[in-house]
């Protein structure tokens, strides 16, 4: 790179916020489950992958039926993907985690890894191991800068990702803060045993947590399939790992922390790809995680565990 360019810097901020929004949507699922039952749902990345596949298949089916309204396609795709992946989230919790809830922590962790491998191979057998691509649905954008130099490009798809992320995160925040079930979720997060004694149906709250996490993962999967136009059965592993990193970076168990961690991780990867080399983006991302945890072991917005006596 010959010199610093403010326009290139702005471009990397746009790219980083786009990637960070995806990480944040997936990371919330990890942090909500951990905040309530203290378990890492390592099958969450595969739920996101299924959401991406459902989005791609829905868009393809709508195209075959001649639906050409972009708004209708986007709304229908999000709705169907959320419904399908939410049912997967509920089923995984009901069959793989609820029977093991009183077991030592290592047992549900092994179950989560088993579910992750099962879902990955299940999709691979049904859809094949190859990459599946589709034609872009939303194209075009705006360019800013001199015509004879570097121009900042902001695509319509990047704006859509930002808007959808803000809408769903705002909705989740209001749900947790204002609704009856949201207050129940917060009570279970503080002390699940006491919440159960006070008459809160903790099984229902935990199932809702998995459903909400799966729904947000579905939104991320649809946005990724629209943005990159390419999915395969293995995208869930690396995206899940990055989202888990974002959740830990922001403070596992903290929803605002998951949002912040996703954005920080996305920006770190974008700047590393632009100003170092693409191969170093993972080194920078995980190096940042180690640095933050050395300074703040609970993450950026995490709270230290309080020993209950």
TrEMBL record:
<keyword id="KW-1133">Transmembrane helix</keyword>
<feature type="transmembrane region" description="Helical">
    <location>
        <begin position="283"/>
        <end position="302"/>
    </location>
</feature>
<dbReference type="GO" id="GO:0015188">
    <property type="term" value="F:L-isoleucine transmembrane transporter activity"/>
</dbReference>
<dbReference type="InterPro" id="IPR001851">
    <property type="entry name" value="ABC_transp_permease"/>
</dbReference>
<keyword id="KW-0812">Transmembrane</keyword>
<dbReference type="GO" id="GO:1903806">
    <property type="term" value="P:L-isoleucine import across plasma membrane"/>
</dbReference>
<feature type="transmembrane region" description="Helical">
    <location>
        <begin position="205"/>
        <end position="228"/>
    </location>
</feature>
<feature type="transmembrane region" description="Helical">
    <location>
        <begin position="153"/>
        <end position="177"/>
    </location>
</feature>
<dbReference type="GO" id="GO:0015190">
    <property type="term" value="F:L-leucine transmembrane transporter activity"/>
</dbReference>
<dbReference type="Pfam" id="PF02653">
    <property type="entry name" value="BPD_transp_2"/>
</dbReference>
<comment type="similarity">
    <text>Belongs to the binding-protein-dependent transport system permease family. LivHM subfamily.</text>
</comment>
<dbReference type="GO" id="GO:0042941">
    <property type="term" value="P:D-alanine transmembrane transport"/>
</dbReference>
<dbReference type="GO" id="GO:0015192">
    <property type="term" value="F:L-phenylalanine transmembrane transporter activity"/>
</dbReference>
<feature type="transmembrane region" description="Helical">
    <location>
        <begin position="47"/>
        <end position="65"/>
    </location>
</feature>
<keyword id="KW-0472">Membrane</keyword>
<dbReference type="GO" id="GO:0005886">
    <property type="term" value="C:plasma membrane"/>
</dbReference>
<feature type="transmembrane region" description="Helical">
    <location>
        <begin position="71"/>
        <end position="92"/>
    </location>
</feature>
<dbReference type="GO" id="GO:0005304">
    <property type="term" value="F:L-valine transmembrane transporter activity"/>
</dbReference>
<protein>
    <submittedName>
        <fullName>Leucine/isoleucine/valine transporter subunit membrane component of ABC superfamily</fullName>
    </submittedName>
</protein>
<feature type="transmembrane region" description="Helical">
    <location>
        <begin position="104"/>
        <end position="123"/>
    </location>
</feature>
<dbReference type="GO" id="GO:0015808">
    <property type="term" value="P:L-alanine transport"/>
</dbReference>
<keyword id="KW-1003">Cell membrane</keyword>
<keyword id="KW-0029">Amino-acid transport</keyword>
<keyword id="KW-0813">Transport</keyword>
<feature type="transmembrane region" description="Helical">
    <location>
        <begin position="20"/>
        <end position="40"/>
    </location>
</feature>
<dbReference type="InterPro" id="IPR052157">
    <property type="entry name" value="BCAA_transport_permease"/>
</dbReference>
<keyword id="KW-0997">Cell inner membrane</keyword>
